[in-house]
Design brief:
This protein has about 190 residues and is of the alpha/beta class. It has five helices and seven strands; from the N terminus they run H-H-E-E-E-H-E-H-H-E-E-E. It has a seven-stranded mixed β-sheet with strand order 2-1-3-4-6-5-7.
């Protein structure tokens, strides 16, 4: 099934919380890793990390006056980043999840495990040849190949994962050798 943007237009919320069942699924995948410091750059109501009792959680939430994208200081000692960034932030032509991913790598480095809920377009909406610059690949494709660490895990999400929204999304994971390469969400 391909979702028709014109049919789905206007039905997407600006602030879509992560379903609690998905938070529990992620917790169950990560609970045995004994993380001490978690980072959630777009924490919303903090549900992505609320099950991680005993962990220090560094939260950013623009509605609370802490904008992760405005942070300039490195964030040391982070054991894992778990994030459901907004899919649209209106900052230039880049996909907003790409903006968040670039900022995560800038502030915590490229060796920290990262689990990012993202539109499938982060990986798949890239071009072998840039139409405007003949023979040049899209910048995101180059970054995925040459600048970002390899994706180690992909978690496939159903199109109806988010309440009142139908959107092709997945969880892309970097630096997660302790996870399987691919998961489908259990029934």
């Amino acid at each position: 099934m391909v979702l028709n943007n014109s049919l789905n237009k206007g039905s997407k919320r600006n602030d879509t919380p992560t379903p609690r069942w998905l938070c529990k699924f992620l917790f169950d995948l990560l609970k045995d890793q004994n993380f001490k410091i978690l980072l959630d750059p777009c924490c919303g109501d903090r549900r992505l990390t609320e099950l991680f009792e005993g962990c220090q959680v560094i939260n950013y939430e623009i509605k609370e006056g802490t904008d992760f994208l405005e942070e300039t200081n490195p964030i040391p000692n982070v054991d894992c980043v778990i994030v459901n960034p907004p899919f649209n932030v209106g900052r230039g032509r880049k996909l907003s999840v790409e903006v968040f991913l670039d900022k995560i790598f800038e502030l915590v480095g490229k060796d920290v495990p990262i689990l990012m809920i993202t539109p499938m377009g982060l990986r798949l909406n890239v071009y072998h040849k840039n139409k405007k610059k003949a023979q040049q690949q899209s910048r995101r494709l180059v970054k995925m190949r040459e600048e970002y660490p390899p994706i180690t895990t992909i978690i496939s999400l159903p199109a109806d994962t988010f309440e009142d929204t139908k959107f092709h999304a997945e969880i892309v994971c970097f630096n997660t050798p302790f996870l399987k390469p691919h998961y489908f969400i259990p029934a």
